[in-house]
Every structure is written in C-alpha cells, then in structure tokens.
Specification:
The chain has strands at residues 3-7, 10-12, 18-25, 33-39, 46-51, 58-60, 68-73, 78-83, 92-99, 104-106, 110-114. 0% of the residues lie in helices and 52% in strands. With 116 residues, it is mainly β.
C-alpha cells in the first residue's frame, strides 16, 4: 500500500521557520523524483520545488528561492522541506508528490499558516 505522509505544519509568525517531512512507504522511494506543492485558499495548486531521485539536483519556484530548501534521506524514505523567512503569502496546504516515468502519488497535505 503506497503512502506519503506529510507532517510538521502549523502556525508560525512571519519571519519564522518550519521543517516539513514526507515519509514514503509502499514503493521504492530512491527511484522517484520528489516534489513539494502547495495550495492556498482560492488558488490553484502550485509547484514549490523538486529533488532528483539521488538528491543531487533541486529546483525551486522563484517565490521561494533562497528561503526554502528541499532535501531527502533515501535511507529513511523521507523528504524534507526547510522553510525559512516565512511570509503570510506562504500560507497554504503543502503536499508531497512522488513520480517516475509511469506512476505518481500524492500525500494528504499538511497546513502551514503564517500569521502574526
């Protein structure tokens, strides 16, 4: 049974930090490219960034570049999203996503709220 379980969301003040985790099970995590997406209320889901299967290549949306860092630990089947200098516009549900050439999977999401 494939599962992607996000955790680490919550309420944080502007300028603060959070680290999200995504734990995978039921598939060969190390063979999948991983992504973080987010969806704010009333907006479409957008790509935050991605990381290659081996972890050597990362890409980020312009809106988070320099503030967010994606990493992964293939031994722990886990991907991370370190979010620094958070802004109110970062408020959204954050989802992890796994894909290879044939298959893709979604997590259930974790809420991040940035507010004073």
């Amino acid at each position: 049974q494939v599962q992607l379980v996000e955790s680490g969301g919550g309420l944080v003040q502007p300028g603060g930090s959070l680290r999200l985790s995504c734990v995978a099970s039921g598939f060969t995590f190390s063979r999948y490219t991983m992504r973080w997406y987010r969806q704010a209320p009333g907006k479409e889901r957008e790509l935050v960034g991605n990381i290659s299967s081996g972890g050597g290549i990362t890409n980020y949306a312009d809106s988070v570049k320099g503030r967010f860092t994606i990493s992964r630990d293939n031994a722990k089947n886990t991907m991370y999203l370190q979010m620094n200098s958070l802004k109110p516009e970062d408020t959204a549900v954050y989802y992890c996503h796994a894909h290879n050439a044939r298959l893709y999977y979604w997590g259930q999401g974790t809420q991040v709220t940035v507010s004073a």
